[in-house]
Write a structure and sequence with these properties.
By secondary structure, the chain is an alpha+beta fold. The protein has 22 helices and 22 strands. It is 38% helix and 12% strand. α7 packs antiparallel against α8. The relative contact order is 0.13.
């Protein structure tokens, strides 16, 4: 006959290792009357003498002090030799109790309690004698089954048999830990750690915002934190964006950590789902669980994730650089112009509104050797076809015209792109003459500004605050006990076995999807080599490749198009805007809007991080479970460890892998921020920065600044290399083989604990049935007694395997055990 397992803490010990329940060290304010052992009537009639040689035939009659007997007939039950002074303990007042009444031993005498229990002096004497002879194992089982555990505590008891009571004492000691200790270990400690990181980032953002507010340009939307040499400005830009990338991925990682905790189901939610033949994800971040968990947790999980992703985008839009350059003048001249031939300025041909002094200055520079750079017409067309030209402030296009009346043919508006005059890779002047070559005048060194957008920084700080509050909300729910880690699920299913998956130890996710939650017959195990890439489901693989392609494909296409179009100078520096790789939008757009637009690809990178993190988490969840089939291991739980259980701040993904992933995505975030960025150019008047500074400007400056989308081919190449290495690492990790732990024809092959198709709560629960959890009627009474486990396995190092070998009429049984297991044999049946 099957035994029903208690939901609360139980312990099997020999009396040589266990103190008497009447010892003064026992906390009787935690013992329920219904839980105290009740002896059989036949045993009560037996009496033993104090001799150690055995029981005596002599029987004496004793009575309690309140019975009508003489003093000589009563056996004293006072504990004179073991008297202890009991004081009121405040913490017991708040300790929860069951429905049955409890007795405070400091108020009610011992003999009254014994009388209420039905004890007599004879039975107490018998028990004392039995203690001398030894006592069989006793299991203390409470009446009511709940999900809470109320262990019996042995206060101040010292026993040399420490191993026998280690599990019980360890669990009890944890229940007495202070609230502070409980909140700095396990997943709560991880949440506190991530909240601390988010708070530090928020504090740094607020300090920067205060500094920006002190600047006069805050009202205009931006503030220059540095203006000067462009090389220094580029280095400042690099440094700030590296910090932003690290902080952004740290916030996103913390949000993903909290998201996994919030999306993890509680045992009650798993039970309800299993009753409806629905399975949940355990040990991984999951959107699928949203339909089965509380709405409050769903809302908080969505807020914490969206705010973290949004802050990742906005933080990358806060910082941008502006290049202060001189816009170039365009002049079409004849060859004789270089020999100081006379020219006439006519409004019809002077579209650039140049003065005589401007033209004479250019004529003088062109007539002197080395003052201007000689460029071929083809190169000239490429150099001056962008929206700006940072290297030159004027260009003379020498045509094949032979006009002697005027050596000046045409002046165009500053910054005019030469593609306007291009025809079949040739430059044609407005009068129809062809350009033979060009002379360009080098501009003075340009200056750059590093700007910080105050309003965007304020929005980023608010999003960071929303993330921080959402993370902290979970700490306020002290009763929240999710199944976050694999150890949490195993511990819960071992303590409270799931009846919906009983006798289905070889259940797979494929069976669950087909609706086969239980088997009518015993099953064979079909061993096969398992590779890690078989663990994620096909939809998860599709999501991983789609997320990678969404950012990898545009990067590769953009890089290919830009390099193929500029083979002479294909690579440009990180975050440096160049004319050939800067593109203006059809409509006018502000700098802040452009910064947000160019930071939007960070959204794709954030999504890729969440997907890759969940993908790798699935890998290591199956790996962690498979290790239990190889050797005994202690459970790694996320809260309240007891016995040999361990706890850690990380959930499923090991710390080295998680840190490597963070560093990798921080590098990709920095590369992306320098690959696509706002190319902001502020134009200065040409004459004010000419090589002849003594010449005053004669025409108004061009104030139409450029706000364009700029690309860096070096950064694009770096980003593509990192993306390629990432997907190759995921694939390479998927090619790892799980260690074999089952037998087939005498050879070790396959592992029955691998998760094919991803995490599944039903599959995990099917593996966590004790060998004593058998439907009623399948075991004989003597078999039932032999099947009683010694102790609680979830408190010890356990392994999974064959816990009961099959016979000719009954299949074998598989499960977790702390007392040794056998290998699953492919030629035998199991339940």
């Amino acid at each position: 006959m099957g035994r029903k397992r208690s939901d609360t803490h139980t312990s099997m010990m020999e009396s040589s290792r266990r103190p008497s329940i009447w010892a003064g060290s026992l906390r009787r304010d935690h013992i329920r009357l219904g839980d105290l052992p009740d002896e059989e009537g036949a045993e009560r009639s037996q009496m033993y003498t104090s001799s150690k040689s055995g029981p005596s035939s002599r029987q004496n009659s004793f009575a309690w002090p309140f019975h009508r007997h003489t003093t000589s007939e009563a056996l004293s039950t006072t504990r004179s030799s073991h008297f202890t002074l009991r004081t009121w303990q405040p913490r017991t007042f708040f300790r929860p109790h069951d429905d049955t009444a409890s007795i405070d031993r400091s108020i009610v005498p011992d003999y009254v309690v014994n009388f209420i229990r039905g004890e007599t002096p004879e039975t107490l004497a018998m028990k004392k004698e039995r203690k001398k002879w030894g006592q069989h194992g006793v299991e203390v089982t409470p009446h009511r089954e709940t999900f809470a555990s109320f262990p019996i505590e042995y206060g101040h008891h010292y026993s040399q048999s420490a191993d026998a009571t280690r599990d019980l004492n360890t669990f009890s000691s944890w229940s007495r830990k202070s609230g502070l200790r409980r909140h700095i270990t396990g997943w709560r400690g991880g949440v506190i750690f991530n909240c601390l990181i988010s708070f530090i980032i928020l504090l740094a953002g607020i300090i920067c915002l205060i500094l920006v507010i002190a600047e006069a340009k805050l009202l205009s939307g931006e503030s220059a934190i540095y203006t000067g040499d462009c090389t220094t400005a580029d280095h400042i830009n690099y440094g700030i964006h590296i910090v932003v990338s690290v902080c952004g991925i740290a916030i996103l990682s913390g949000a993903n950590y909290v998201f996994q905790i919030l999306s993890s189901p509680t045992r009650r939610e798993v039970t309800v789902a299993h009753e409806n033949k629905r399975w949940l994800d355990v040990g991984i971040p999951s959107i699928r669980n949203f339909k089965h968990i509380s709405s409050f947790r769903v809302v908080v999980a969505v807020i914490v994730l969206l705010s973290a992703v949004a802050s990742q985008v906005i933080y990358n839009a806060v910082i941008f650089t502006t290049r202060n350059i001189v816009n170039y003048d365009v002049l079409f001249v004849t060859q004789s112009f270089l020999d100081h031939a006379p020219f006439t300025i006519d409004t019809k041909i002077n579209e650039g509104d140049l003065s005589d002094l401007d033209i004479i200055s250019l004529q003088d520079s062109a007539s002197q050797a080395g003052e201007m750079t000689n460029i071929t017409s083809t190169t000239c067309l490429q150099q001056f076809s962008g929206i700006f030209q940072p290297s030159f402030n004027a260009v003379l296009l020498i045509t094949d015209s032979t006009s002697t009346d005027n050596s000046l043919i045409w002046t165009s508006e500053s910054g005019t792109q030469l593609t306007t005059f291009a025809s079949n890779n040739d430059i044609t002047a407005p009068d129809g003459s062809k350009v033979q070559y060009c002379l360009a005048r080098t501009s003075v060194p340009q200056t750059c500004s590093v700007n910080l957008n105050g309003p965007l920084l304020g929005i980023a700080a608010l999003l960071n605050l929303a993330t921080l509050i959402s993370m902290a909300v979970i700490l306020a729910r002290s009763s929240f006990a999710p199944l976050v880690t694999l150890g949490d699920a195993i511990r819960s299913f071992l303590r409270h076995p799931d009846p919906t998956t009983a006798n289905a130890a070889l259940l797979t996710k494929k069976d669950v999807r087909q609706g086969h939650w239980a088997f009518s017959e015993a099953q064979y195990f079909f061993p096969a080599t398992h590779y890690w890439f078989q663990t994620p489901s096909l939809p998860r693989w599709a999501l991983t490749f789609f997320s990678w392609t969404a950012i990898g494909a545009p990067t590769a296409v953009a890089l290919g198009l830009m390099i193929s179009g500029h083979l002479d100078d294909p690579l440009t520096l990180f975050g440096v805007a160049t004319s050939q790789f800067s593109f203006s939008l059809p409509s006018t757009i502000s700098t802040a809007q452009m910064a947000l637009l160019t930071a939007l690809p960070q959204l794709l990178l954030s999504v890729l991080y969440l997907v890759i993190n969940a993908h790798l988490t699935t890998y290591f969840l199956s790996y962690e479970l498979s290790l239990f089939a190889l050797s005994p291991r202690s459970l790694r739980v996320s809260s309240q460890p007891a016995g040999e259980q361990t706890t850690s701040l990380f959930l499923t993904l090991p710390r080295p892998v998680s840190w490597a992933l963070l560093a990798w995505f921080a590098a990709m975030g920095f590369s992306l921020s320098q690959a696509v960025f706002p190319g902001t150019v502020k134009f200065l008047p040409p004459s004010s920065t000419s090589t002849t500074p003594s010449v005053p400007p004669q025409h108004p400056p061009n104030t139409a600044d450029v706000v364009a989308v700029s690309f860096s081919t070096q950064a694009l190449l770096s980003l593509l290399a990192l993306l390629t290495a990432l997907i190759l690492a995921v694939l390479a990790l998927g090619c790892r083989r799980t260690q074999a732990a089952s037998l087939a024809s005498g050879e070790v092959t396959g592992n029955p604990l691998v998760l094919r198709g991803g995490a599944c709560s039903a599959v995990i629960s099917a593996k966590c049935h004790h060998h004593d959890i058998v439907p009623p009627g399948q075991l004989a009474p003597e078999e039932t007694a032999a099947a009683v486990p010694t102790g609680e396995p979830w408190l010890r190092s356990i392994a999974w395997g064959v816990v009961e070998e099959g016979t000719s009429g009954r299949p074998g049984r598989c499960g977790f055990s702390a007392d040794g297991v056998g290998c699953v044999d492919a030629g035998k049946t199991y339940v």
